[in-house]
Design goal:
The chain is of the alpha+beta class and 82 residues long. It has one domain. Helix content is 12%, strand content 22%. Strand 2 and strand 3 form a beta hairpin. The longest helix is centred in the first third of the chain and has 10 residues. The protein is globular and about 35 Å long. The relative contact order is 0.25. The mean pLDDT is 80.
């Protein structure tokens, strides 16, 4: 189905990923958007992490099918991608 995450991982695999990450820099931003609003995020040299805290929306990765975000969805974008 279009708009679904590329893949889902188990809670155990997510826990393992989070404990093995080597984070040297973290810049955090919170974006609260009104219904129908848009937010453009520029390309970054580092991976970016997007987390949908509540409600729903879409993330539009470069040249890919839009992915639906719902509450507690985590998206990790590779370096160099908008």
């Amino acid at each position: 189905m279009a708009g679904e995450p590329l893949w889902r991982i188990s809670r155990q695999d997510l826990d393992k990923l989070m404990t093995t990450l080597d984070v040297t820099l973290a810049r955090l931003s919170e974006c609260a958007l009104a219904a129908g609003a848009h937010l453009a995020v520029a390309r970054a040299e580092a991976s970016t992490i997007h987390y949908c805290l509540r409600d729903a929306g879409f993330i539009l990765p470069d040249d890919e099918t839009p992915m639906r975000l719902t509450s507690h969805t985590l998206v990790i974008v590779p370096p160099g991608r908008a």
